[in-house]
Amino acid sequence: xxxxxxxEEESAQASLFEExxxxxxxxxxxxxxxxxxxxxxxxxxxxxxxxxxxESVGSLVAAEMSHDGLPWSAEEHDALLTDLLxxxxxxxxxxxxxxxxxxxxxAAFGARAHVNPDSPAQIIKAFASAxxxxxxxxxxVLKGIDHPxxxxxxxxxxxxxxxxxxxxxxxxxxxxxxxFRPEYVVGxxxxxxxxxxxxxxxxxxxxxRRAVVADPGWALVVADAAQLEPRVLAALAGDRAxxxxxxxxxxxxALSDAFQDDGVSMSAxxxxxxxxxxxxxxxxxxxxxxxxxxxxxxxxxxxxxxxAAARAGERGRLVRSRLGRTCPPPSAGWRELTLEGGDPxxxxxxxxxxxxxFTRNFVVQATAADWALAxxxxxxxxxxxLDAPRLVFxxxxxxxxxxxxxxxxxxxxxxxxxxxxxxxxxFGDTPVVFPMEVAVVDRYSxxx
Length: 448
What we know:
Blueprint: H1 18-43, H2 48-68, E1 70-71, H3 74-85, H4 96-108, H5 120-129, H6 139-142, H7 149-166, H8 168-174, E2 175-176, E3 179-180, E4 183-185, E5 195-198, E6 218-225, H9 228-237, H10 240-246, H11 251-255, H12 268-281, H13 287-298, H14 300-314, H15 332-337, H16 347-386, E7 390-395, E8 398-404, H17 408-427, E9 436-441
Antiparallel strand pairs: 1-3, 2-3, 4-5, 6-8, 6-9, 7-8
Helix pairs in contact: 2-16, 4-7, 7-8, 9-14, 9-16, 12-13, 13-14, 14-16, 16-17
């Protein structure tokens, strides 16, 4: 019997997934390396680590809110639309109320006229034929015209906007199982404010808020920061007199004494409000000019803070929020247009002033976004301890928590504590307060 053949020892067969494991190991090492480099860069930027953490928790909150959804009654929504527009139409027709308005608008321009109120060109042409030339169909333009079609057009525009943006098609698309689940875009605006990629969560019309209804045995805790941006400016600028006023509940009322004897015909509180908004947004015409002079004289450090930001923007420089969020740099086209020697009264000067207005507001609005993210992170942590309550809505300076009724008081306390923690995280021991106006309601529309 022949001997068994002698086989040379073969090398062990490679594992089926060995190459994949090696590649995965290299990939993990790369991820770890990138993370380490990010940590190194973040640690070298004053305050930026807190901004990164705030953005991360904001993304988490956004995902949780989209998952949990905002309580929404499809029945209430449908009833509201039916009351305002008539029964739901079919076949792409206008709702009954809109069609009735469209017919009356045509009649207002003459028995033989046929004007489509959805067509700006036809409206402009109809007014021109009536001897009333207009440049656009914007509401403020129409309000300046004396013509019987104007009130009808304004009503039509308002109802048509509701039908288009939040009508039955929106209800079918975005509300299911008693919840509205929007798609948030965290930091979707350069200032750090959120946006949405669908559903228009940040533009829920007041008239529709009655459709936001808590579940049986639950409540909505609605809280918004009072006069947030002026208080942010007070904390940023450190203006002593302004800071003392911002330690009060109503900031505008506390500032009103400075605007008593300036000759402007409006309440002192309204004058304080107009002056502050003009300083933060770059207003400078009419009565605002005089009020800004008062603001500059009485609160020089606050005035100079936004003025310095505006000057930096006009010079093409960058400005930052409290936590280090940086404004976008000017475009190459802007730099070319504003090269030295450009006409200050022409397009170059207009571009300079426009960027100055942007950076003037950026330092305040972006810091307000920083504060709001800190509020969200702090509030989420406190709500997790309570277990059942859920953050279900956020809009710039407003939050809504859906909670069992018996925990509503605890949620309200958590909101106030979170606002104070956000203040301390951003501004330390500033005496500026950030009061939250809190309402416990069954319907969102009952909060304000």
